[in-house]
Design a protein that fits this description.
Blueprint: H1 3-27, H2 29-40, E1 49-51, H3 54-57, E2 64-66, E3 72-74, E4 78-82, E5 89-95, E6 105-111, E7 119-124, E8 137-147, E9 153-161, E10 164-172, E11 180-188, E12 199-208, E13 214-227
Antiparallel strand pairs: 1-13, 2-5, 3-4, 4-7, 5-6, 6-13, 7-12, 8-11, 8-13, 9-10, 9-12
C-alpha cells in the first residue's frame, strides 16, 4: 500500500479504537457503579445535568503517557498542555486507593525537572453540556486532589462560541501537601458574554503553578449545572 492509503487506514483505525474504548468503558462494571453513585449525589436544586469524565469511571487504553508533547491526549477527554522543552512529565490513569472514593479511577501527573512557564490538564466537556445552556446557568465543579507538595492550582472554564472564547478562572484554595483536598467551585455564566446560539465547545483547564519535582493525583472530578436562583 502507498503512504496515502496507510495514513487513511491509520486514521480509521484510531477512530475505531476510540469507539471501542468508549463501548468497553460503558460496559465496565466499575463504570456502571460510578454512574449510579453520581446520580445519587445530592446537588443543588434544579440541577439539570451532571457528568464525570470517562477516565474517572472506566479503564482507558493506553493507561499512561511519558514525556508527552504539548496537546497529547489521554483517552478521549483529557489532554496535557505545557511549554517544557525537556518534557519530564508522566500522566497516567491510576486506581483510586480508598473504598470511600466515588470514582474507581483517577489521574496522576508526575513532574520532574520543569523549566516551562505553564502546565495544565484539560478536560473536554461533552456536547450534552451545551444543550439548553444559557447565561442564567451556573456550572459547578467538584474535585478531590492530592498534592505531593503545596502549590497553587487554578480551575479555568473555557466557553467557545463562534470565533470567541470566554474564560472564568477560580483558584482552588486550602491545598496542602500530602492531604486529599475536596474542592467545590462555581462558574457563573452571567459573567461571560457567550452567545447562546453559537456554542461550539466547552472545556476545563486545571492549571498547576510551579509544579517542579512534584506529583498531583486527581481522585475525583465531576461537573453539574443548575440555574441561578431568582431574587
Amino acid at each position: 500500500m502507498g503512504p496515502a492509503r496507510i495514513r487513511n487506514l491509520t486514521e480509521e483505525a484510531m477512530a475505531l479504537r476510540a469507539s471501542l474504548n468508549r463501548f468497553l468503558m460503558r460496559g465496565d462494571r466499575k463504570a456502571t457503579v460510578s454512574r449510579a453513585a453520581l446520580e445519587a449525589l445530592p446537588l443543588p436544586g434544579g440541577t439539570d445535568w451532571r457528568w464525570r469524565p470517562g477516565f474517572m469511571a472506566g479503564q482507558i487504553t493506553p493507561r499512561g503517557i511519558a514525556a508527552p508533547e504539548s496537546g497529547t491526549r489521554l483517552g478521549d477527554r483529557a489532554g496535557v498542555w505545557h511549554d517544557c522543552t525537556e518534557r519530564a512529565l508522566i500522566l497516567e490513569q491510576v486506581q483510586n486507593p480508598r473504598a470511600t472514593d466515588l470514582s474507581p479511577y483517577g489521574l496522576r501527573l508526575e513532574v520532574f525537572g520543569f523549566s516551562g512557564s505553564f502546565l495544565s490538564i484539560s478536560v473536554d466537556l461533552p456536547a450534552e453540556a451545551m444543550l439548553g445552556l444559557t447565561r442564567n446557568h451556573i456550572l459547578r465543579l467538584e474535585t478531590a486532589l492530592v498534592l505531593e507538595r503545596p502549590m497553587n492550582v487554578y480551575a479555568r472554564l473555557n466557553v467557545g462560541h463562534g470565533p470567541n472564547v470566554d474564560e472564568l478562572l477560580q483558584m482552588l484554595r486550602g491545598m496542602e501537601g500530602g492531604l486529599q483536598s475536596q474542592q467545590v467551585v462555581e462558574f457563573d455564566l452571567a459573567y461571560t458574554e457567550m452567545n447562546e446560539k453559537r456554542l461550539e465547545r466547552i472545556w476545563l483547564d486545571l492549571i498547576f503553578e510551579a509544579p517542579r519535582m512534584s506529583a498531583v493525583e486527581m481522585r475525583e472530578l465531576f461537573l453539574s449545572r443548575h440555574m441561578r436562583a431568582d431574587f
